[in-house]
Amino acid sequence: MNPETWKKARALLWVLVTVLFVVALLFFTGAIAIPGLPPAQVDLRAYQPWVLAILILLATKALLEVLRPVFRAALRSHVRFEADIFAHFKLVSYVVWATALLFVITILAGTGAQQNLGLSIGLVSAALVYVLGEPLLCFVGWIVLVTMRVYKLGDRIEVNNTRGYVIGITPMNTTVREFGGSLAGDIHTGRYVTIPNSQVIRGNVFNATKDTPFVWDQVTITVPFQGDTKGAEAILLAAAEHVVGHMMRESMPRIRNKYEFEDLREYVTEEPTVLWNVRDAGVDLTLVYFCPVFERAAYKTRIVKEILGQVGERPDIRLTAPAAPTATPAVVSAAR
Asked: Mapping DSSP to helix (H, G, I), strand (E, B) and coil, where does residue 281 land?
């Protein structure tokens, strides 16, 4: 069964279930008679609130299933993407369910069901949380990110391994222009990514531009034990000085002003630095520096070219296979 046929069958199924419930209700109360079946009359006055509640819920489900294709057909000429139509319908369905559940609460609370009011409110509240759980969590996440300024329009963020430039924030989700992704470096992929605001509460949010536009990055080369390791270190520092040295010195006061605590100056690298590490293939030399986040890939490319150009003129320095991929660069982050 193809998806369209299944959607039609599902809508018909819920309509049929609702009609059968109404027919059964009328039959057991004696309002109608079914040929071939003995008449039945049941006093449902004690259960009237529950019967009405079930009827409202069934009718709401059937109504939404019937309206789904109608809604889609009405918006197809105005909304370009199928996913956007689905998102609009989901929003409408949340409103409809919320309204139906409010009716149910009102009926159970005010029509003689006071003796079961606690249970009624508990069941309806559980249903409300189940139906509106994710939207409510997204809304709470939106309040958190707005009040705590987790990020804002124009920031460069990373959420759930998705990196991008924030171009839209709504109570339900955040839209970013993706960078990186399946491409090398931080190249713009041309894709838009929609991130539910619930991720602000559920996961980690990395903001690379909350206070300054700089991030620390690194370039690692491996020199065999027989090679001139100190000469390789000098080449790394010279390449960094040529590409980012002047920019780092000019930007340092701006970064220092963002430190939350004075002793951070003792722990944060403020000049191009080379870290050493020994492994089986030789000595890993890692050049650490900072650069503008939006040009990280460009600066790394310039530094790598500078290093390779100088290493090519030094026969006493040989490079071997690189080490395993390094971790994501540290982010400059402080309260604005």
From this structure: coil
